[in-house]
Amino acid sequence: SFTKMAKFFTSLFLICSSFMFTRDVFADENRQANSHMNKTPYTNSLPLSIKQVYIVYLGILPENGYSPPSRHHKILQKLVGKNSATSLLIRSYGRSFDGFAANLTQSESQQLEEMEEVASVFLSKTYQLTTTRSWDFVGFSESAKREHVQESDVIVGVFDSGIWPESESFDDKGFGPPPSKWKGSCSGGQKFTCNNKLIGARFYSKYSVSARDDEGHGTHTASTAVGNVVQGASFYGLAQGTARGGAPSARIAAYKVCVKGSGCSDVDILAAFDDAIADGVDVISISISTYSVSSLLSNSKDIGSFHAMSRGIITVGSAGNDGPDQGTVANVSPWMITVAASATDRRFVDRVVLGNGKALTGLSVNPVNFNGTKFPIVYGQNVSRNCPELQAGSACVDRDLVKGKIVLCDDFQGNKEAYLAGATGAIVQNTVVQDVAFVLPFPSSSLSLEDCESIKSYIKSAENPQAEILRTEEIVDREAPYVPSFSSRGPSYIIQNLLKPDVSAPGVEILSAFSPVASPSGHPGDKRSVKFSVMSGTSMACPHVAGVVAYVKSFHADWSSSAIKSAIMTTATPMNLTKNPEQEFAYGSGHINPTKASDPGLVYELETEDYLKMLCAEGLKSGLLTRISGQNVNCSDRTEAKDLNYPTMTSFVSALVPFNITFSRTVTNVGFPNSTYKASVVPLRPEIQVSVEPELLSFGSLKEKKSFVVNISGKGLKDGSVVSSSLVWSDGSHSVRSPIVAYSIKIYD
Q: Residue limits of the Subtilisin-like protease fibronectin type-III domain (predicted)?
């Protein structure tokens, strides 16, 4: 049964400990610098008698006259008796779907799982939160064609660390009242005021007192998606220009599900979905991810986004910051848009000039200018207090020996220790992420191992070693776009014949609005207050796509969520394989192209019924899916994942074994009423042969559907390899591109 299968996955694979809440890639440095601990799932080994927070998911809401809290109490009473039930219940979900959160032992959770009315039970986990140039870089200039009135009817719900309502990015000058469909409220807490731009706010954790953002992450993502046009934005003069979101006329509803120091729990995320769906949002942006190998529909994001999809709401999620290892992509449900991060052509570099005149180029976002002044430079191990065996940058740094000096550290984290010890600056070895510049709490530069070794040699040989850390410069990166090392890669652990991520979007060194009470470097001692800051991560890529969804929806309010998703994927720009050998498992369909997405020509559409048939093929049972969807599901009628009407085509093949695979697809005409599309396959690959039947699709009206079959075959792939091509349908005006991927990467062993 599904219950037994879900229990197996939950106990065997679920990542059940709390992961620290992180604001961006930089905040992930400790976890990444160690052993990528999130990449190896482990079992819940706590004693069966220890109570933890579990979510009990019951499925779709019954019809009229139903009281969710009353039913939830009754279910708990069956388990523990009338007197104890009330103390166990933490939260009821009953606006958009049915379920509750409760304090349970593992044994009690297993008993609930066996109850007929229960769809699934899973441990509430805590997740991590995973512009002046980025929109221009994707060909989306400020002068792009817009439907401002229709755009103002689009509501984007942002699930994050809250929002700073006074930011210029959320000013409501020129906005009329909220759309009539809005059913939400401004429940942001004390001294929190909404307006006609920021039309709603909620917070959930018992550790929060308002929806106000004290981390900066939520303000940054919200403004990236739909922030106002703000001229003269910069981080102390760096990245100066006009900041704006993808859909500046759209409205925002902020749902604070993440708390500083506590993270983002399943309990609160599911509550936000329950509210946002009922409130009337059109798009949900959720820059929250933790690599996990739990089964489908056993976490808050899968469940919440499924119910959102069934109501026509698109959920956009970050792919995660656990790259470059393969099989680490998060948020892989087929009804979500999963977004990888990419670099733009604007990069930040920071140069170090030694006393001997040698200049070295590193990475950091450093607004401080030493104005030609050089400071003594010391090696961290030489200024430690009785800790000769410890690396430079340890807690043993002697304050008296580093005051007024620059400290060379063997580890990226040494910048924190040097800062706490009162050093003037730090030069650190880049042991975390090699291709991203971070905001650090004081003048610092992150250099390669080779450059750090050359500085050590200079310190040893010079009588009076000195150095200067220059102010950060902006340079043009002509290799962009490419996916940086931190962005999580596919293939998916959950559905092996579905390509994830879906697309890539700018997520490296993005300037956007920020909370003035948050530390721009994430260091508690960094008291700088800024209105805009630079952040990196798939958390930054996700709201770019949410903004594009809002933009496309402003032109096509009647399009389904799958049609808009298809439009974004099939118009994405192919990316350079030389920078990303993982190919589509790094960047999905490619790099977003917002203007083309508004006029895709053809779209691949999916209904709730299609997803249910796929879930049947993935092993879920008819009764469970009926309970979840409210439809009468018969799993004798199922659709393999490879034949889901998805805009990409993907199949796992056994290494060195000949293969012959067929994909069935249907497209809907949304371009010219009378049009003929011709198929081409580019590029041609010697490892696979691709045929399309038929090769011509002729349409006589809008919304007309045509089906076709793609066949791929080959003599066998090398173990651990990926080979890809693309099917392109073209009518001379539109190019509708779908990646075709065959791979033999084993991530299931």
A: 643-741
- Closest of 698, 694, 645, 335 to residue 502, by C-alpha: 335
- DSSP 8-state secondary structure symbol assigned to residue 231: E
From first CA to last CA, the distance across the chain in angstroms is 23
Active site residue 400: no
Helices assigned H by DSSP within 91-210 = 106-113, 134-137, 148-151
pTM for the predicted model, two decimal places:
0.91
Per the annotation, the verdict on 266 as an active-site residue is: no
Q: For tokens 């009330």, what's the residue?
A: 86
Alpha-carbon span 394 to 405, nearest angstrom? 17
Residue of 560, 672, 570, 553 lying closest to 605 (CA atoms) = 560
Give catalytic status of residue 217 as yes or no: yes
Q: How far apart are CA 28 and CA 25, in angstroms?
A: 5
Catalytic residue among 92, 515, 539, 651: 539
Q: What are the tokens at 36?
A: 């990528």
Candidate list 160, 274, 282, 643, residue with the active-site label:
160
Give per-residue pLDDT as tens, 35-92. 332 333 334 545 567 899 999 999 999 877 788 999 999 999 999 887 788 889 999 9
Alpha helix segments (H runs only) across 260-383:
266-279, 300-310
Q: Which of 570, 584, 589, 591 is nearest to 479 (CA)?
A: 591
Question: Which of 28, 73, 152, 217 is flagged as catalytic?
Answer: 217
**Chain segment 89-133, per-residue pLDDT in tens:** 999 999 999 999 999 999 999 999 999 999 999 999 988 787 456
